[in-house]
Every structure is written in C-alpha cells, then in structure tokens.
Write a structure and sequence with these properties.
Helix content: under 10%
Structural class: mainly beta
Oligomer: single chain
Largest sheet: 6 strands, mixed
Distance between the termini: 40 Å
Radius of gyration: 13 Å
Order of helices and strands: EEEEEEEEEE
Length: 116
C-alpha cells in the first residue's frame, strides 16, 4: 500500500519561503512522474508542478512559474517543492501524488498559509 506523507507547511508572511517534502513508502516511485497539487478553501484541487521520473522535464502552473521549484531525490523516494516569494493566494493545503494523480494515493497534505 502506497503512503505519501507531506510536510514542511506552515504560516509565513508574504514574500517568504517554504520547502515542502513528500516522503513515499510502500513502493518505489523513482520510475513514476510526480506532482504537487493544492486546494484552497472553497476551490477545487489544482495541479501546481510536475516532474518526470528522471527529472528531465518539469512543468508549472503559470501563476507559480519563477517562484516555485520542484525537485526529487529518487534514492530517498522523496519529492520536494521549494516555494519562494509566497503570496496570500498561495494559501492552500498542498498534496503530492503521481502525475497524473492516482486516486488512492492522496494523503493528508500540508497546510500553507501566507499572511499579507
């Protein structure tokens, strides 16, 4: 059974930074494309960033381009999201999953709150 555990969220002022981590257990995800997603209050969950299994291709939601950076450590079965220049509109619960997402893999997510 795959388990994805997100961490690293918190409360930060606008302009600040956070680094999210996603630890996978139950199977290796080193050969799977992965992504970060987020869900803001009252909104649908949306794709934020994705990375192919080997890290050669990376893609972002337009609104986070130039501010967020996705990376992965396949040896550690871990996915990261470096978030800089955070804005209040980035406030959401952030999740990791495969890309495209696998329904059974959704975890609890990590809350990111950006104050103005």
């Amino acid at each position: 059974q795959v388990q994805l555990v997100e961490s690293g969220g918190g409360l930060v002022q606008a302009g600040g930074s956070l680094r999210l981590s996603c630890a996978a257990s139950g199977r290796t995800l080193s050969t799977v494309d992965m992504g970060w997603y987020r869900q803001a209050p009252g909104k649908d969950r949306e794709f934020v960033a994705g990375i192919t299994w080997g890290g050669r291709s990376i893609y972002y939601l337009d609104s986070v381009k130039g501010r967020f950076a996705i990376s992965r450590d396949n040896a550690q079965n871990t996915l990261y999201l470096q978030m800089n220049s955070l804005k209040p509109e980035d406030t959401a619960i952030y999740y990791c999953n495969t890309a495209p997402a696998t329904y059974d893999y959704w975890g609890q997510g990590t809350q990111v709150t950006v104050s103005s």
